[in-house]
Amino acid sequence: MTTPTRRHLIAASGAALVAAPHVARAQNAPIRWRMITSWTKNLPGPGVSAERLAQRINRLSGGRMLVEVLPAGSIVPAFGVFEAISTGVAEMGHTASFFWDGKLPGAALFTTAPFGLPPLEHQTWIEQRGGQQVWDAFYKPHGVRGLLAGNTGPSMGGWFRKPITSLDDIAGLRIRVQGLGGEVYRELGATPQSIPPGDIVPALERGTIDAVELLSPVNDQPLGFQRFAPVYHMPGFNKPNGAAEALLSLAAMEKLPEDLRAMVEVACAAEHTAGLIDAQASNAQAIGDLVAAGARVMPFPTDVIAAMRAKTQIVLDRKATESAGAAKIVASYRQAMQAGRNWASIEAYMAQVLRQG
């Protein structure tokens, strides 16, 4: 056995001292995540929510975790976010669940459903009436978890080149629409089209669509839809709620320390509230500005609304037959609607009375 000399000990000690800062830096290096989104950068509403969510995670973690936001098209297309998270392309996404309903029937309800739950009741379903458990079970086989992470509030009915005066005006209508409302329009004879938010204006400008339904006034305003389709119909039967979805890779979440996992979840919940407050505060100003810019706000005719409501039940019934998972989602959603129906009616009546005069 060779006895270490003083020179060897000094050399070894020096090497350890040189290595120590590198070890410390490696141990303290922030965890870096990429958040891919379905939105153009800073798109009012959901795009802003994505940026704010990332900033909140970065801040809450004290820099131990850094999330980079990547807009639609930078890595995957707007409608490719779910698959990208599922296959490990990125650790996190910010999007809306109705984009996956074609491949995962029933997913749309985690964002909204025609004539469905408004924002507070939708959140109550997710957090208090079993919605999150259904959501978790639905996405788990894909290695993904979904969380509420922003809300644009109730939407308007959309922008139309000509007023809808009867059901005859819907037959043959080419309308950009997402979610189950597209299926309702199809039932009424329209031709719904799925177009990413960033591509809507060119489609409207070229005349390849006759109408577009996006979100609420503050989200629609910067896109200038009224230049091509000035009739702004209401109510937004298709989206009484506008929940954004944070998609989290289960594999990436499992690698996080427990406190950072909790921070991600808390940040998502905080953004859900922040997005809804932003929408409520901004829409009053935006609707006035849109009218001043030439928008003609008009209600859908009552018979059209009645037909849309009837077709919605047909669409939901059919959706429930598409898979076992879809059946569970639809049943849970309808149970939540029924459970909150009486109090919701009282709330609506009280709000109407208290606002009179």
Describe this structure in words.
The chain has 357 residues and is α/β, with parallel strands linked by helices. The chain has a domain at 28-153 and 241-281: 3-Layer(aba) Sandwich (D-Maltodextrin-Binding Protein, domain 2), CATH 3.40.190. It contains 12 helices and 11 strands. Strands 7-6-8-5-9-11 form a 6-stranded mixed beta sheet. Strands 2-1-3-10-4 form a 5-stranded mixed beta sheet. α5 (131-139) packs antiparallel against α12. The longest helix is centred in the last third of the chain and has 35 residues, at 258-292. It is globular.
Key phrases:
D-Maltodextrin-Binding Protein, domain 2, 11 strands, disordered N terminus, 357 residues, 5-stranded mixed beta sheet, 6-stranded mixed beta sheet, alpha/beta
